[in-house]
């Protein structure tokens, strides 16, 4: 296993040595963890939970935003994936996450590129991976860590990238296999963005010179967005917004220093960087608040030994 920070690899020796609360995230590429769930990861790590990140590829097909590193690109030296291992280690250190693994080991699965590209057909493309084989690698992590909560993407991979879709499939199949062994997590969440937040963004950024919604007049035009009533959890980790931004900056090849993400963070502050939302795909919703009863804790209603009692049925998780 690759550690998040400097030093020798970290090896978890057994669930009895871990904290009572254990969170597992399954992401497609380095940087996905920071952009989509960085605040949540930092929040739970700071609170003493054990946070395990599984990244499915090295992100070899990513666009390089550092001109002097352009030679690392897939069409050149094809060394970007190795470089991004170091970026991910720095990002994890910024988030306080020390347990990071690549699915099946670094380099087993390759970044597939965007949907419809020739890279989808690379022999090692994650998009082509056998589902049970890939899920078997994840099952090994679940056996070791016994997470009560798992986070991944929805069936569309949040926005349709083939590796995100495959990460969803692998995560859900891994949970199904874990349930068959009696070690399933109590809850599985999918990353989400409420329609109300997107609506507010359309209005707030309409006059901005760095408008990420330029040309869009209705949130229905976006490839993502969830009705507020379907959101299950809102994690307020505004106190960790600086950690999330530091983690994003660690992914310098992928997120340029002048990215609209940083510009908007500067204008709208901690809430933009520090609040993240999720739908609940598996398990029972815990106590919440507000008009829709949104949870403010992903472990709401979960007992410390939930992963050992296998509360999730094996059927219907694919």
TrEMBL record:
> Which one GO biological process term can you cite for this protein?
mycothiol biosynthetic process
Enzyme type, top EC level? hydrolase
Q: Which domain of life is it from?
A: Bacteria
Catalytic activity of the protein: 1D-myo-inositol 2-acetamido-2-deoxy-alpha-D-glucopyranoside + H2O = 1D-myo-inositol 2-amino-2-deoxy-alpha-D-glucopyranoside + acetate
Question: Which co-factors does it depend on?
Answer: Zn(2+)
Q: What is its EC number?
A: 3.5.1.103
Q: Which residues bind Zn(2+)?
A: 29, 32, 164
Please provide, alphabetically and separated by semicolons, the GO molecular function terms listed in this UniProt record.
N-acetylglucosaminylinositol deacetylase activity; zinc ion binding
Q: Does the keyword Zinc apply?
A: yes
What NCBIfam families does UniProt report for this protein, alphabetically?
Answer: mycothiol_MshB (TIGR03445)
This molecule's function is given as: Catalyzes the deacetylation of 1D-myo-inositol 2-acetamido-2-deoxy-alpha-D-glucopyranoside (GlcNAc-Ins) in the mycothiol biosynthesis pathway.
Q: What is this protein called?
A: 1D-myo-inositol 2-acetamido-2-deoxy-alpha-D-glucopyranoside deacetylase
Please state the gene responsible for encoding this protein: mshB
């Amino acid at each position: 296993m690759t550690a998040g920070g400097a030093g020798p690899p970290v090896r978890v020796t057994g669930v009895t040595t871990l904290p009572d609360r254990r969170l597992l995230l399954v992401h497609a590429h380095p940087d996905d963890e920071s952009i989509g769930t960085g605040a949540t990861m930092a929040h739970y790590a700071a609170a003493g939970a054990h946070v395990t990140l599984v990244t499915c590829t090295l992100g070899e097909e990513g666009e390089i935003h550092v001109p002097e590193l352009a030679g690392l690109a897939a069409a050149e030296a094809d060394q970007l994936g190795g470089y991004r291992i170091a970026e991910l280690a720095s990002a994890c250190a910024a988030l306080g996450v020390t347990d990071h693994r690549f699915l099946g080991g670094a380099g087993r699965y390759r970044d597939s590129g965007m949907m419809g590209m020739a890279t989808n057909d690379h022999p090692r493309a994650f998009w082509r991976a056998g589902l049970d084989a890939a899920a078997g690698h994840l099952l090994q992590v679940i056996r070791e860590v016994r997470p009560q909560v798992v986070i991944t993407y929805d069936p569309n991979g949040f926005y349709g990238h083939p590796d995100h879709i495959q990460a969803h499939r692998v995560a859900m199949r891994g949970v199904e296999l874990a349930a068959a062994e009696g070690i399933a997590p109590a809850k599985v969440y999918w990353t989400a963005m409420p329609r109300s937040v997107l609506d507010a963004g359309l209005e707030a950024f309409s006059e901005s010179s760095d408008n990420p919604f330029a040309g869009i007049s209705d949130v229905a035009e976006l490839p993502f967005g969830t009705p507020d009533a379907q959101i299950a959890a809102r994690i307020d980790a505004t106190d960790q917004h600086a950690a999330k931004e530091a983690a994003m900056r660690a992914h310098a090849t992928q997120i340029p220093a002048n990215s609209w993400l940083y510009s908007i963070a500067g204008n709208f502050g901690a809430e933009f960087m520090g609040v993240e939302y999720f739908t609940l795909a598996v398990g029972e919703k815990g106590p919440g608040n507000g008009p829709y009863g949104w949870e403010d804790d992903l472990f709401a209603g979960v007992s410390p030994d939930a992963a050992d009692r296998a509360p999730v049925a094996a059927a219907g998780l694919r």
